[in-house]
Please model this.
Amino acid sequence: MEIVLNVQSITTGYEENKILTDISFAVNKGEFIGIIGKNGAGKSTLLKALRGFLPIKAGTIQLFGRKLQDYEQRELATGISYLQQQIELTFDYTAWDMVLAGRYPYKKWWQQPGDDDKRIVEACMKYTGVHDLRRIPIKAMSGGQRQRVLLAKILAQQTPLLFLDEPAAGLDLFYQEEIFRFCQEMCKRGKTVIMVVHELNLAARYCSRLMLINQGKILADGLPKAVLTDKLLSEAYGVDIRALVNPETGHTDIFTLPQPGTDEKNQLLNIIVGSGEATERTGEL
Amino acid sequence: MKKYHLKLVLTVLIVALFFVICLSLSAGQYDLGFFQVVAWGLHQLNIPLLNELQLTEQQEAVLMYIRLPRTAVALLVGAGLAASGTVLQGLFSNPLADPGIIGVSSGATCGAVAAICLGLNSTSMFGLPAFAFVGALLAVTLTIGLATRNGRIPVLTLLLAGVVVGMLFSAITAALLTVMDDHKVQQYLFWTIGSLDYRRWEHVLMGVVPITLGIIIMLLMARHLNILALGEAEAKAVGMPVVRYRLILLMVAALTTASGVCISGSIGFVGLIIPHMMRMLVGPNHSHLLPVSILAGAVFLIFCDSIGRSILTNSEINVGIMTAVLGTPYFLYLLRKHTDLQ
Model:
């Protein structure tokens, strides 16, 4: 197995805040890693640090055996592409303009995009099914279309590693699953994907490895089956969670159980709407 | 919104440029016909058309030494201001950014007032422009210096620093004005409104090199500007050294504006309206937007100057007033239309 990314006991965070401490792991070529954990656990911070966006206060990150700091900005962008969580555009850039931006690291500062770049952009847009939308401004697109365009952009960057920060957030079921399928296919073709995920059911089905982050540390790291256990998930998310294998599909499904204190809430509801009415309402629901 | 074809827009603008140049050469108190100017132009190019419309010697002198340099200055300044405005709007991802926003205008004004105060403008015609240029440079350096933190230039901090530096330089200007006599204050007022009166070939020579150079660099950087306009995070993700490019573009835009301000005084609205208008026509891709804006800026300023000279019979209206009068309502109209569509 070829190690593409080697992380050795790094500590990182924003400014003075240490958000992640003493994180170590190695990433092999072709892996599809999902980073999971509750909000604020440090998932996105980890991804940003791995891409070199945050200062590393201790430890080292090696990409293909070379320290991340030793890479030039442009060179690093030909090794790792990064799909950020939210993109805010002021101007009406078209889908084509956006995907073409993925070719930026391959050009010297005076060079204009050439025919080969245009061919790559076209191929990537066709691959994610947005070629017909190439002249449409990104701002006018639906969330699903936009993510497909951004996906085409990081594919046009032609990097061996792809980092995606919550790419499925806010999308409907079809698009969510589509993103996971795209990534799985990329990994089968020799790319390596690291993705911050909230959709645990999809992560269970598509990722080859999961990393559970809790309070700035890796709580568990391994095959989805080994990470998605009642005990680990309940500890990381702070609620009672059951991971069950669905007999129909054979996939792991994750459920949260009612939290302690819910009974008390019901009683409060009874007081607010009046007990008789409350039962009626519950019936309606 | 429908985007027009780039070639169509460029063609229309080039035709418009020739038209406004002839208009500008024929407008004013001294009588020179529009077609006489056209004939003169054709004659210079050895095209034997309209031969019956020959200029008198006096007319040719007015054309050569008064109207041509004035038109050339308008062309340079209009193009430079529009280019700088386009770059700054892209750089800040803010369609309302303007060369005035990073302190260039107030710095230049302050420098000019200092020159007037020292009486330098009456001893040499280079004194005031040189001071204005230094003032603009000082203001921009100070703005960038204040805004840089840990090697980063956050956009919001930069805009705020620009406002603060602008206020500082305005205060110095005000202080200098209070100690100046009426005659000098009059000169300052003339300069600050922005005027193309009495521009000579020396003014053209002073501005042509820095403005042309600035425009060429900006055109070369169009592709980088597109990446910067996608936002800092996106630019970093594709491997752009964001701070370096921001600094370069900021400096080039500032120097181009400063050079323009030096030879014409501070003329507002061109750098704000033109890029905004042109973006609605051809879209935000700077490889298209920049050349179109440059042409449109030149057309607009030459047109404003010609109109300002033609309205009153015995006097003229400063071009700075004209750009504001013509620019503001159109800008408001476009803004309204734009937000309605959204």
